[in-house]
Design brief:
single chain; alpha+beta; six-stranded mixed beta sheet; 6 strands; about 25% helix
């Protein structure tokens, strides 16, 4: 298991910010396989009321997510960090198949292993319907 994902813990303000930017870039690619590579093979997730374990479940979850959440665009903000943990605030915008736009707000708590892979991700998210002209997360 020589797979690593720099920056590695222990985090500094600078390396935690780089980790957040890398996550934002990966999620904005809307590529489930690319996103899943940042997580351990047995990574544990809570996303709203969904509990997942492992990369295969993560990939399946993200495929279904981006089939529903069209034109998804995300911004993350570093909230806090410790040696091997990072907390972020985020907002993302998307629309459904009927054209209704949403802004989703939330918080995530991340825990990393020594190789810089995320072993735990816990996300709390709320959705707010918005009009298309209220969008603020640039495409």
């Amino acid at each position: 298991m020589s797979e690593t994902r720099p920056p590695l813990p222990p985090f500094t303000a600078e390396s935690a910010e780089r980790k957040v930017r890398a996550a934002e870039d990966a999620w904005n690619s809307r590529d489930p396989e690319r996103v899943a590579l940042a997580y351990t093979e047995d990574s544990e997730w809570r996303n709203r009321d969904v509990f997942l374990t492992g990369r295969a479940e993560i990939v399946g979850f993200l495929r279904a997510k981006w089939e529903r959440e069209l034109d998804y665009r995300l911004r993350k903000e570093l909230w806090a960090y410790t040696d091997d943990r990072i907390a972020v605030r985020f907002e993302y915008e998307w629309h459904d198949g009927q054209g209704q736009w949403y802004r989703s707000y939330g918080n995530e708590n991340w825990e990393f292993d020594e190789r810089g892979l995320m072993r735990r991700r816990y996300a709390s998210i709320n959705d707010l319907p918005i009009a298309e002209d209220e969008r603020r997360v640039a495409l």
